[in-house]
Give the backbone structure.
Amino acid sequence: MSAKVRRPVLRRCVACRSLQDRQLLWRLIRQADGSIVLDLGMGRSAYLCRDRACLEEAKRRKRLQRSLRAQIADSIIATLDARLEGSDAATAKAR
Ligand SMILES: [Zn+2]
């Protein structure tokens, strides 16, 4: 009855360009000092699906670098890789 249905905040993935609920995406933020952080921070943001294909596409075409106009440290990509592998492992265990 009341209009309290929470609408998802949509953001566009830099790799596949689809709009997704922000909570389903990874967020990379370029902070004021130029460093890149994941998930939390203030500054220019880029969003990426939690998906192997989108991570690979972003890596190959340097989508995150272009979107943020900054260098992305290998450690950031490695962290996302590890998260994907973590979720894969969790899925495998659940089977
Ligand atoms: Zn995507």
